[in-house]
User: Fold these one by one.
Assistant:
Number 1:
Amino acid sequence: MKIINLVQGSNPWIQYRKSKVMASQVATILGKNQHQTPYNLWQEVLGLIPPQEETSPMAHGKLIEPYARNQFCEETGIDMLAVVGESDEHEWLGASFDGYNVEKNCVLEIKSNGIKNHTIALQGKVPESHMLQMQTQMFVSQAGFGFYESIDREKAIYTLRSLDLDDPNVI
């Protein structure tokens, strides 16, 4: 994976995302995102409609992400960095990682979930749209495994699930 020197959320990062298929867009492209259609994503990428406005859950997720990443690092002993990466094999494919560790070859995805998706996480599963994002992140980085951290934004309770590509339950 090629690391791209961009700060997530910055204007250069926003421009970079317009030139790639990003891991966070894959569920939408496949019609598995309940919040956006493939057509709306296409319009947004081409600048035909304004970008999706930041929702309260999105703002909450951005706010707590650094704290959640630090908590993960403290509890697991695995240092994770927020990075942007591009596939070595497919330069049109990229990912913005909530956490990535080169030495351990793993990724971390942090989600500020509502009760529905957090309940799925508490059952030891990853919601399908999030799974598609993580699988793409793992493909881009060639990571052997990943961690999914779900935070119930109402109760500030979190759960952690590891994801191994060799797991038969992976989509």
Number 2:
Amino acid sequence: MTERTDDRLAHPPSDQPPSDQASPDQASPDQALTPRPARHLEAAMLAAAVAAQGNAWAPYSRFRVGAAVLAADGTIHAGCNVENATYGATVCAERNAVAAAVVNGARELLAVVVVTDADPPAMPCGVCRQVLAEFADDLPIIAVGAGGRVERTTLDHLLPRRFSGRDLPDP
């Protein structure tokens, strides 16, 4: 389930939902199933992801990506994509955000925001999904694209029946 909304998150949201959007207690049943971080945390994650996108190194694809992850301790860690002329050495924004979180001691993630200029908003690639799964059983994924268009989904939806440490034998 990918939830498409007209949330325009180019600017952090206010405490009041826009008049053309249902409030959380008026959400459709499908929308109600997608977990959401608190509004102030989501706004802070968005701001961090937008700032990171501005630092993306994407001279080959020109596809700039910023990402921010929310750690279980409430800290937000951002990353941007860093391309390389060999392409295979390129590192995605989501993986850089996860690496920043791990460097700072995080071991559990609660949510991720991904910002691109794409329409529709781009979701994390397969490798990034697997890396996110290393640090969360499931988490909300908020993708923001051109004009602030938002799509919401979950890791479970994008990567069902994923391989994890639980699939490995005990050492």
